[in-house]
Automatic annotation (TrEMBL):
UniProt main location, coarse: nucleus
Pfam families per UniProt: Tfb4 (PF03850)
Key word DNA damage present: yes
Record carries keyword Nucleus: yes
MF annotations from Gene Ontology: zinc ion binding
Job description of the protein: Component of the general transcription and DNA repair factor IIH (TFIIH) core complex, which is involved in general and transcription-coupled nucleotide excision repair (NER) of damaged DNA and, when complexed to CAK, in RNA transcription by RNA polymerase II. In NER, TFIIH acts by opening DNA around the lesion to allow the excision of the damaged oligonucleotide and its replacement by a new DNA fragment. In transcription, TFIIH has an essential role in transcription initiation.
The organism of origin for this protein: Brachionus plicatilis
UniProt-recorded name of the protein: General transcription factor IIH subunit 3
């Protein structure tokens, strides 16, 4: 039997607003086709728990961590907080029944629902559902998963030989507000050689595509929610070595465009702050992220213009000299002068 230890961190999108809109038929697929196989969150949770049960039964050295990505926060569902505080047991020493895992997940979701209702009661009465945030805290959930891995690596000697893997099940749309934090999580996972597998429900996610592509994971958009468990078992149950012997769907093109900090939209060309590296779609004299003032020296611009005019005069002089004495190798000097002028002109244009 394989004694290699594995840790699978499953991130489940538990956004109540998205699931409520999906059950009411307000959400359509990527190709604008109405959904005829609406499933409830309970059905999705049953599929995820079936996947976790199958993963744990494959090998006794397989351990699982389930994290919920809510619309306001991220929370551990399994192991429970009480089990996380237990320093005497490793994740591979908890031989719990699947029913115990169900109870832990059920209790965690219950606490999340109560906190969500308390937040709604504390706020003013919501009159328009469009004003509600439909974003899920995926980046926060990934941060919790990385902290869980870091806790194991710093505590146990054998942690370096453990293979870690993420499976992100995302339902809501991408949030450009989480772009920077999400990319930081991706780069941290890539540096630690952690695979990020992505499962998008109904809508493609460019952020998850980048995460899976950079970490050599699997990205797939589920076309039919009723077959969620089948897709999870087919694509995400095999480990990295077993995948080389299986046939997987072809990889799609990945959109690597960055999101601007001003309007939170994906852009092709933008302006980058030289201090905090914030990206903007339009020029601004003051960075809204770090409040850095971009000062422009008028004398520098005047000097650049005078240098440019001087270069034009030198070009004319060399051109007239080459015409009067074409035998003395003036053309070679002119070619070298043109090359230097091009580089200097580029520098002047950058200053302008």
């Amino acid at each position: 039997m394989n004694n290699e230890k594995n840790l699978l961190i499953v991130i489940l999108d538990t956004n109540p607003i998205w699931w409520g809109l999906q059950n009411s038929g307000s959400i359509q697929q990527e190709d604008q086709v109405p959904i005829h196989d609406n499933i409830t969150f309970s059905d999705c949770l049953s599929g995820v728990m079936g996947f976790i049960n199958a993963y744990k039964t494959m090998n006794q050295n397989n351990s699982v961590c389930l994290i919920a990505a809510h619309n306001t926060r991220a929370e551990y569902l399994y192991p429970a907080k009480s089990k996380l505080a237990d320093n005497n047991q490793t994740p591979w020493e908890r031989y719990e029944q699947i029913s115990d895992i169900y109870e832990s997940v059920k209790e965690g979701l219950k606490n999340l629902s109560q906190q969500h209702l308390e937040n709604l009661s504390d706020a003013k009465e919501v009159k328009n559902k469009d004003n509600l945030s439909n974003d899920s805290m995926i980046s926060s959930a990934m941060g919790l998963g990385l902290c869980f891995i870091n806790r194991i690596q710093r505590k146990y000697i054998f942690a370096e030989s453990v293979k870690y893997r993420f499976v992100v099940i995302k339902a809501s749309d991408d949030s450009s507000n989480q772009y920077m934090s999400f990319m930081n999580m991706i780069f941290s996972a890539e540096k630690s050689n952690i695979i990020i597998d992505s499962c998008a429900l109904l809508h493609d996610s460019s952020l998850l595509q980048q995460a899976s592509n950079l970490t050599n994971g699997v990205y797939f958009r589920v076309p039919q929610l009723n077959g969620l468990l089948s897709y999870l078992l087919w694509l995400y149950l095999p480990d990295e070595q077993t995948r080389n012997m299986l046939v997987y769907p072809p990889k799609t093109d990945v959109d690597y465009r960055a999101a601007c900090f001003c309007h939170h939209k994906l852009i092709d060309v933008g302006y980058v702050c030289s201090v905090c590296l914030s990206v903007f779609c339009t020029f601004t004299p003051i960075c809204t992220t770090c409040n850095c003032n971009f000062r422009f020296d008028v004398n520098m611009l005047k000097k650049a213009n005078s240098l440019k005019q001087g270069l034009m005069v030198n070009k004319l002089q060399y051109a007239s000299k080459s015409k009067s004495d074409p035998i003395n190798g003036s053309n070679k000097n002119l070619d070298s002068m043109d090359t230097g002028d091009i580089n200097l002109n580029n520098s002047i244009e950058m200053i302008e």
